[in-house]
Specification:
There is one protein chain. By secondary structure, this protein is of the alpha/beta class. It folds into 3 domains: 190 residues, 3-Layer(bba) Sandwich (FAD/NAD(P)-binding domain); 133 residues, FAD/NAD(P)-binding domain; 93 residues, Immunoglobulin-like. Strands 1, 2, 5, 6, 7, 8 and 19 form a 7-stranded mixed β-sheet that branches. It is globular.
Length: 419
Amino acid sequence: MEYHDIIIIGGGPAGLAAACAAREAGASDILIIERDERLGGILNQCIHNGFGLHTFKEELTGPEYAWRYVEKVLEAKIPYKLNTIVVNISPEREILYVNREEGAVTVKAGAVILAMGCRERPRGALGIPGYRPAGIFTAGTAQRLMNIEGYMVGREVVILGSGDIGLIMARRMTLEGAKVKVVAELMPYSGGLKRNIVQCLDDYGIPLKLSHTVTMIHGKERVTGITISEVDENRRPIPGTEEYYGCDTLLLSCGLLPENELSKSAGVALDRVTGGPVVNDRLETSVEGVFACGNVLHVHDLVDYVSEEAARAGENAAEFLKGEKSGASYTPIGVAGGVRYTVPQKIDVAHMADKVTLRFRVGEVFRGKCVALYYDGRLVKKQKKRVMAPGEMEELVITKESFKDAGNVEKITVAVEDQ
């Protein structure tokens, strides 16, 4: 059986950054497996700017950002396979992949890095009444059709969901001559970044209706219109609030789901909130030698954070090959006061790095609050936050020094509370 020190599943921004970092950390035998026809992942279809401000200190488009890492991979002569589908990963780190040239092949890895990204929530998962006419697309599918395939998906558009891709596609459709009539959002707050609401909706006069959802799709062959309704605090439509919009296209931007079928086949434990693997501070999953990073771990708002996280995964995978493994004693990280989850979910205090960055999201909009860190109920630090929203990821740094006089900490807690 063919062997590689590190096999990376996914050639998007996470996989590329992990490969580069692993090579710099001393790993020589690395293989990237990518299902698409080119490296770069989802960034290849994100032709808008706004990428790279943290990583490269300049504003880049998605393809430009991806190419920076592709160039590094090419310069380092890291091998990769394109148009190749990974079918299964075993707990023993044996990977079965399929492509046209080789057929079905099983390879063995010293360490595996999961970087498969995420997928969009489809119409079938939303339960919207109506026929199944043409003209219904997820926002990401519409983005690919327009930006890569050169196909204009519609002229009169309604968008359900205010995730970042939906907001960006509202602007993109408008610039291509379409009329975006409304963006409806089920929740009482937007799921996207504030800057995207301003730049993609406000600047073009596109209305955003919060606490609204689509309650009927009209049309049998092609979408002819949709009905939206206001929803109550239980997210149920309120009778008498129906509004009809004539349109030929409905775009769905209703959330992203980590692509974790392969993680399940490897026996990786998944977090019920993130949908991604449960990891320690080395980004190692519950299966020894299997690491995870990027949107397959938890959905990020900025690709710069994906690259930073993936670099840590690559470095730690390289260290794993040298026999430098975490201990078996982990301190769990709990959440309270509106924090939905943290990544990582546990820390090996005895072997942790000098600094560990916790990333997390809150469950509602908070203004004038604090993020508090507790060790066994003892307050360690507080950070003031002017605004926190579900659409924007937050972070908190834990230092090894902070455990120096803490004794044997049994639980770490991150909470939102009053100042």
